[in-house]
Amino acid sequence: MARRAEPSRPRTRLPQPRRVEAFQLGLSAESRAALFLIAKAYRILARRWKTPFGEIDIVARRRGVLVFVEVKAREHADDAFEAVTERTKHRIVSAAELWRARHPDHANGEIRFDVIAVTPGKPPRHITNAFDAEA
User: Is residue 63 part of a domain?
Assistant: First the structure.
């Protein structure tokens, strides 16, 4: 009995291992940063919130202040802070404006932009008010 040929399936491209590793590192860093914030009495409102402008890593609230957090994982904390470019800041500010428009219950009050550097074997470093909305 002859076997019927199965219809060919389109070949899907697998992501490169380096990109997968970077993605997983980023997820791990964001989880560490979120736990760090929770320990500091922040309430996490969203993680990995996607917009047409880009993604906000963490949206949190503490004592009435709405905080948009960029998380960077690097070998050294200084490298992580340097990785937050002017373009990154503009993207985060634009995404934050959209967040506030879509979440009117959080639209009023003070906002802040923080950066958390996650490095191997050390606690996260949190820079509060790392940049302004005018960035």
Answer: yes
Neighbours of 126 (CB within 10 A): 16
Distance CA 52, CA 75 (A): 29
Identify the three-state secondary structure at position 53: coil
Judge whether 98 lies within some domain. Answer: yes
Q: Rounded to whole angstroms, what are the CA distances from 37 to 8, 72, 114?
A: 49, 15, 11
φ, ψ of residue 21 to 5 degrees: the values are -60, -40
Question: Does residue 5 surpass a pLDDT of 60?
Answer: no
Number of independent structural domains in the chain: 1
Q: What is the CATH number of the domain that holds 81?
A: 3.40.1350.10
Confidence of residue 3 (pLDDT cuts 50, 70, 90): low
Higher-confidence position of 78 and 60? 60
DSSP per-residue letters across 71-125: EEE-SSHHHHHHT--HHHHHHHHHHHHHHHHH-GGGSSS-EEEEEEEE-TTS--E
DSSP bridge pairs for 27: none
Select from 56, 57, 59, 48 the least CA-distant residue to 118. 57
Question: pTM of this prediction?
Answer: 0.79
